[in-house]
Each structure stands twice: as C-alpha cells, then as structure tokens.
Specification:
alpha+beta; DNA primase DNAg catalytic core, N-terminal domain; 5 strands; 8% strand
C-alpha cells in the first residue's frame, strides 16, 4: 500500500527517536545526540548513535529513521511498523483512495503476467539458438550465477513466441500488451 509522503513525514516528526530506541537499549547522552550499544550486532563499546531524526551505527553500518528502526528491531514489515508508530503518535493511517487501490490491484495482476514470462526467456537463452546471446552476456563479465540470479534470458528471433508460450498458461496477448511485453503490431490490434 502506497502512503502519502506527507503522512510519513508527519509520522517521523511525531516519533521521538530517543524514546523509541531507549525501549530496546540503554542510551547515554553524548553532546546533542544519544549513544549506546547497537541492538543489531554484538558490541561492548557503544557505536550506535541516535539523532532527532534517525540512527546510525558506526560498527555495522545500520542506519535509518523511526520506521526502519521498528522494522529491524521488531522484525516488522513496513506497513506494520507504520501502523504501530501511527497508533502511538495518535495518527490514523490513511486508507487508499479507490483509484490507488485499483492501480495497486492492477499492478498485482501485471506482476502475475511478468513472473511466468521469465521462464520462456531463460529457457531460450540456454537453447542452441540462444548461444550467441549467452556468449555475449558472459563476454560482458556476467557469470552464470549472476545471469540466473537476475533471471536474464533471450526473446528469440521470431515474433509471437512469448504469446504462444503463455497462452497455454491462460495469459492473453492483451495482458502482455498492458505489461509492456508485446507491441500492438505483434498482437494485431
């Protein structure tokens, strides 16, 4: 769920970092900020600093704002952290407008098109016809592990192969067009 930046700024402004962090660790005043032992890694000498608007650990590099702290310290998702902090700050989390809800629902549907589209591309890259593309990627310094991790593939030389592959899975050409995986002339629209 997308939240308005103004709401998130107000939430951060209403959340005193010192009070939030001191629930988890003991803090000592150090100039204008506070410091303590980092809750994210074991240490004996304090390297975790808390400022008015965030935190930074000079030991492990952890840093962020109130939302990030709740996410890391409590294992909460972004929305869970926002809801907890909003409740404490006396703010109501804005509900998405119908337009935003529709856009997010559409994005989920399109993700459902993009995920299955990866497999045919990956498969073609490792076929004999995809050999030049695979050699090109390797020549650019990409390892097979990197190619696999990023789901890189090859579309093939012909048109319409992806639509044919995905039609078997119930994905229509109009969905491919909307997801940006096909152009109108390929679909015949």
């Amino acid at each position: 769920m997308a939240l308005p930046p103004q709401f998130l700024d107000e939430l951060r402004g209403r959340t005193p970092m010192h009070a939030l962090v001191s629930r988890k660790i003991r803090l000592a005043k150090s100039g204008r900020q506070w410091k303590g032992c980092c809750p994210f890694h074991g240490e004996k000498t304090p390297s975790f600093y808390v400022y008015d608007d965030g935190f930074h650990c000079f030991g492990c590099g952890a840093h962020g704002d109130a939302i990030t702290f709740v996410m890391r310290a409590d294992g909460a998702s972004f929305i869970e952290a926002v809801e907890r902090l909003a409740s404490e700050a006396g703010l109501e989390v804005p509900k998405p407008t119908p337009e935003v809800a529709a856009r997010e629902a559409r994005a989920r549907v399109l993700h459902g098109v993009l995920a299955p589209a990866e497999a045919p591309f990956v498969r073609r890259l490792h076929l004999p016809e995809g050999r030049p593309a695979l050699e090109y990627l390797r020549g650019r310094g990409l390892t097979d592990a990197t190619i696999a991790a990023f789901g890189l593939g090859w579309s093939g030389a012909g048109r319409g192969a992806l639509a044919a592959d995905l039609k078997e899975q119930g994905i229509e050409p109009a969905q491919l067009l909307e997801a940006g995986l096909m152009q109108e002339r390929e679909q015949g629209l």
